[in-house]
Design goal:
Blueprint: H1 2-8, H2 18-30, H3 34-47, H4 52-64, H5 68-81, H6 86-98, H7 102-115, H8 120-133, H9 136-149, H10 154-173, H11 177-190, H12 195-208, H13 211-224, H14 229-241, H15 245-255, H16 262-275, H17 285-296, H18 299-312, H19 315-328, H20 333-343, H21 349-362, H22 367-386, H23 390-400, H24 407-420, H25 424-437, H26 442-454, H27 458-471, H28 477-495, H29 499-510, H30 517-529, H31 533-546, H32 551-563, H33 567-580, H34 585-604, H35 608-621, H36 627-639, H37 642-655, H38 660-672, H39 676-683, H40 691-707, E1 711-722, E2 729-739, E3 744-755, E4 758-772, E5 775-784, E6 791-800, E7 805-815, E8 821-832, E9 836-846, E10 851-862, E11 869-877, H41 889-892, E12 896-907, E13 912-926, E14 933-948
Helix pairs in contact: 2-3, 2-4, 3-4, 4-5, 4-6, 5-6, 6-7, 7-8, 8-9, 9-10, 10-11, 10-12, 11-12, 12-13, 13-14, 13-19, 14-15, 15-16, 17-18, 18-19, 19-20, 20-21, 21-22, 22-23, 23-24, 24-25, 25-26, 26-27, 27-28, 28-29, 28-30, 29-30, 30-31, 30-32, 31-32, 32-33, 32-34, 33-34, 34-35, 34-36, ...
Length: about 950
């Protein structure tokens, strides 16, 4: 409603192209005129409802205007069609974030990150949303991932280090000291000058009871923060705690600036000197060698210190002196290998890999180093595969194939990459290569079978798996794989609409797992599609034997029973479901559908009342669908009296007062009742979307509008030519009628005939009355001269029956100019279909001496929506039949044999019709005298114009 009300104001802005609206809306967005942008994009969508660009602009404008529900509704339509549209996803993130629909916002952010996995902004947006949700664990996980992508971004690094320090402190509080150390080390690696990380690891080592390790980290911290008072005091305190007073004294004297730290020199130093009297720190060989190494870089001291540090687990000292030694001797292979091996046991992955790469570059032929290098590259390539960076991972694995230690694993990874990239030819070659390496490895055959399945070569895939089943009969996994492949094969065949081919595949799978829900469901659907409803019913019953309370299977069973015309059984199934699911809309809708099918079947069998009842109940169960209501109304109109049909339509209109279909059908009933004013009013409610059909329907309404006019005037001219001059003539007719009210009509006729022998005139009055909607009659009198009877009295009655049938009976008395009396009895019947009318009429005649007869058959066929029609007529008998002048047979012919004719009725307008009819008559009649009879041909052509006013 927001969208509709939003743009009704702008009805005056009209363009004839959606592209113009798009350009206007785009310009308004650029100028930040969002209200007008919304208007323009909406207008464009009236011309091009499926234009996704216009919908995008409409959503963006509403977003800027703060109409978030409208923006979400429109943009989600675009999103369903353009899943990878970054702009639309961005707008949806903003909408859901602003309206605090955080879960939806996270889903859209994740989709954006699948498209742009390295977007710094979307990662930070994801972190922010998680924080607003209060989900700090996910926010932290996302921040760690962002830091892996942008390790050099200082802002991200600061945030990352901050949360890592919190993780470390939390680990210490929970006495997870090793985890805490790992966190602090990671922060130090990222930021070697991060004091809080050093303080954390020092505190952690003290809590573990390792002051020596704490001292090592303090020394390392001071390499970066030489004049930090807290760290200086921490080192002095640790040296005192370890009884190494003399070392603390030397440190203060040589390393601590007296001017910057006077208190340490004036108070702490004397205290330590007093304490050192009880200790002799220089008796420790390790410390002596460390001092010697620091003084002169003695190689023996270096070996001693490094070996002892490595042996005693002094990792910090070992790392420090190894790096110092490598700095002095950059090509010292032993030191570099020791540094690498230092990082391996402590699981310092990044440093270990860095040292391996350095060593491999310097010593490419060393076997052990090459193995470590291959191990590192294999790990990196696997990470790339996990991140779907296949192009980067593939060359690494191809290089590793040449290494015996990694050949098999690398070949497997290459196969996996080809499979993921859908490079099926390469994947086929690769799996064959793996099978060649290990012919007896069944896992490779499973992989090949999976490959064939991916390639949609299901028969080949199943053949391999079938062979594995036979080779390993005690293994359960191969039948499971086989069944899963039959599921995939059956799904593929259903997608390709090969419904008959799918059933043998399903039967094959069910022999291994007869209760497989997916296979049973596909079997039911395929049986329905063939269609083989009986088979589908059997599958449904089989499924219910395994899953007796499965609602979906019961619904499918009821549908198949209905399709198989077992309507009562279908209804029983649905009734059993209704007991359990009293308010389930889907069950009610299904029951409504079955009742509709049953009603339609009863309708076809002629059980009208039963069909109507089924339609009525169907409509009450599912009033949102109008198929049952429409069928019921149509059946009332076709099969019931007009009054009953009008009553049911009015009843339903009280229930659905805005239903245009019901209003239209009410107009149809009024048309049948010949109440054309009401018929026109109600039929105008009919809704037609197609412009051409709508135009045609407007023409039909105009015809209906014309039908309510009370006056009708018809003018006819007929030209008859014959083999005999006596039977050649011209005839003109003029007829007028006036509908006095809904039941009574009055009229007058005037006929004029001309021959060589003279002219004749005939005139008269007529009256017709409608007694009931299916019964009406007419009477009239005519007076004539010359060729016409002296006078004619006639009357006819017409009765409408069911299914479009009508019957007619009429009696006419004529007094001819020679005072012969002529009596005519008409008996006829007709049938009307949608566009076809067929009539048959028998005419029995009697004058003072002889009996005559005629039989005529006519048809009219509508040829277009204007109801223009073609007509055909054939008659035969011993007296003539003239459709244009029914009262004038005796005026022209005596003994007719055969008449054949055709005509065309053209609606010039809804009020006026032009009729053209032609006929050929062959009859036997006297030519020169009463004894000379001859066959004569006569040709008639008439033109009529009928108009209403």
């Amino acid at each position: 409603m927001t969208i509709i009300s939003q743009f009704n104001t702008y009805a005056q802005d009209v363009y004839d192209s959606s592209d113009l609206y798009f350009e206007e809306a785009k310009r308004d967005i650029a100028e930040q005129n969002f209200t007008r942008a919304a208007k323009m994009s909406w207008r464009g969508l009236q011309l091009a409802p499926e234009d996704l660009d216009l919908k995008t602009l409409l959503g963006k404008a509403n977003l800027q205007l703060g109409r978030y529900d409208t923006a979400r509704y429109v943009l989600k339509q675009v999103y369903e069609r353009r899943r990878k549209d970054i702009d639309v996803l961005g707008f949806l993130v903003t909408i859901e974030h602003t309206t605090k629909r955080y879960s939806d916002a996270i889903c859209f952010v994740n989709e954006l990150l699948e498209i742009t996995p390295y977007s710094r902004g979307w990662w930070r947006r994801k972190i922010l949303i998680y924080k607003e949700m209060g989900n700090y664990e996910e926010a932290e996980r996302a921040l760690k991932r962002l830091y892996q992508i942008y390790p050099d971004d200082t802002e991200i690094q600061d945030d990352y280090n901050y949360i890592m320090l919190n993780d470390g402190n939390s680990a210490v509080e929970n006495r997870r000291y090793d985890d805490a150390n790992q966190v602090y080390k990671t922060v130090i690696d990222n930021d070697p000058s991060n004091k809080q990380a050093y303080i954390g690891i020092i505190r952690n080592e003290l809590l573990k009871g390792d002051p020596e390790i704490a001292l090592q980290y303090t020394n390392r911290a001071l390499l970066e923060l030489r004049e930090d008072s807290e760290l200086i005091e921490k080192k002095i305190g640790l040296l005192e705690q370890l009884g190494r007073h003399e070392e603390a004294i030397v440190y203060i004297k040589t390393e601590v600036d007296k001017g910057k730290f006077p208190t340490i020199h004036s108070e702490t130093l004397p205290y330590l000197m007093q304490q050192s009297a009880n200790f002799n720190e220089y008796n420790d060989s390790y410390e002596i060698q460390k001092k010697l190494l620091d003084l002169n870089g003695n190689s023996e001291s270096q070996t001693y210190v490094i070996n002892n540090a490595l042996g005693k687990g002094y990792d910090v000292d070992a790392e420090y002196f190894l790096k110092k030694g490598i700095k002095r001797s950059p090509n010292n292979k032993k030191l570099q290998v020791q540094l690498k091996e230092l990082y391996r046991p402590i699981k310092d992955k990044d440093r270990f890999e860095r040292e391996v790469l350095i060593l491999h570059e310097k010593f490419p032929n060393d076997t052990d180093i090459t193995y470590d290098y291959n191990l590192v590259m294999y790990g990196r390539a696997k990470t790339l595969v996990e991140n779907r960076q296949f192009d980067a991972a593939l060359p690494i694995f191809e290089d590793l194939v040449s290494s015996p230690d990694f050949q098999k694993e690398a070949e497997q990874q290459i196969f996996g990459i080809y499979l993921a990239l859908q490079k099926y030819d390469e994947a086929t070659d690769q799996i064959d290569k793996l099978i060649g390496l290990e012919p007896d490895n069944p896992d490779y055959l499973v992989k090949k079978s999976t490959l064939y399945q991916e390639m949609e070569l299901f028969e080949d895939a199943l053949e391999i798996t079938r062979g594995l089943e036979q080779q390993y009969p005690l293994e359960d996994k191969y039948p499971r794989i086989y069944v899963s492949q039959t599921e995939a094969y059956a799904t593929y065949l259903m997608r390709e609409q090969r419904f008959r081919a799918v059933l043998p595949v399903i039967e094959d799978g069910l022999t291994r797992e007869n209760n497989n829900k997916r296979l049973l469901e596909i079997a039911i659907n395929a049986s329905s599609a063939i269609p083989d409803y009986e088979r589908g019913v059997n599958y449904s019953k089989s499924a219910l034997s395994f899953y007796p309370n499965n609602k979906n299977f019961k619904l499918k069973l009821s549908n198949l029973l209905a399709q198989n015309k077992q309507y009562d059984d279908a209804i029983n199934v649905l009734d059993s479901l209704k007991i359990v699911y009293k308010y389930d809309r889907k069950i009610k809708n299904s029951l409504a559908e079955v009742l509709w099918f049953r009603g339609k079947n009863k309708e076809e069998e002629g059980l009208i009342d039963e069909a109507i009842e089924d339609y009525r109940i169907s409509d009450s169960l599912n009033s949102t669908e109008d198929y049952a209501l429409q069928r019921m109304i149509n059946l009332y109109i076709q099969e019931k009296p007009n009054e009953d049909a009008l009553e049911i339509v009015n009843e339903k209109l009280e229930q659905y007062p805005n239903d245009n279909f019901l209003k239209y059908k009410k107009g149809i009933v009024y048309e049948l009742m010949e109440q054309y004013d009401s018929a026109y009013y109600y039929q105008s409610f009919r809704q037609i979307d197609d412009p051409f059909e709508r135009n045609e329907w407007n023409n039909a309404l105009e015809v209906l509008k014309a039908a309510k006019l009370k006056n009708k005037l018809a003018a006819t001219y007929t030209q008859a030519s014959s083999d005999s001059t006596a039977f050649s003539t011209s005839l003109a007719s003029l007829g007028y009628s006036h509908r006095y009210d809904e039941k009574n009509t009055f009229g007058a006729d005037l006929n004029y005939a001309a021959r060589r022998s003279g002219v004749g005139v005939q005139g008269g009055l007529n009256y017709s009355r409608i007694f009931t909607p299916t019964l009406y009659a007419d009477v009239g009198v005519l007076f004539g001269s010359k060729f016409f009877p002296k006078f004619i009295l006639y009357g006819n009655a017409y009765k409408g029956l069911n299914n479009g049938y009508d019957v007619q009976a009429g009696l006419r008395f004529s007094r001819l100019q020679n005072d012969v009396n002529f009596l005519t009895l008409n008996l006829g019947a007709s049938r009307t279909w949608e566009d076809i009318w067929v009539s048959a009429k028998a005419i029995l005649m009697r004058d003072d001496q002889f009996n005559y007869f005629n039989f005529a058959a006519q048809t009219r066929i509508n040829v277009n929506t204007r109801k223009d029609y073609v007509s055909f007529i054939v008659s035969f008998g011993s007296a003539p039949f003239n459709d244009q002048l029914a009262e004038g047979e005796t005026a022209f012919l005596d003994f007719s044999n055969v008449l054949v004719g055709a005509g065309y009725g053209y609606n010039i307008s809804p009020k006026t019709m032009l009729l053209v009819n032609g006929s050929w008559i062959n009859f036997k009649s006297p030519v020169t005298d009463s004894t000379a009879l001859a066959y004569i041909n006569q040709y008639n052509l008439s033109v009529s114009i009928i108009t209403r006013f």
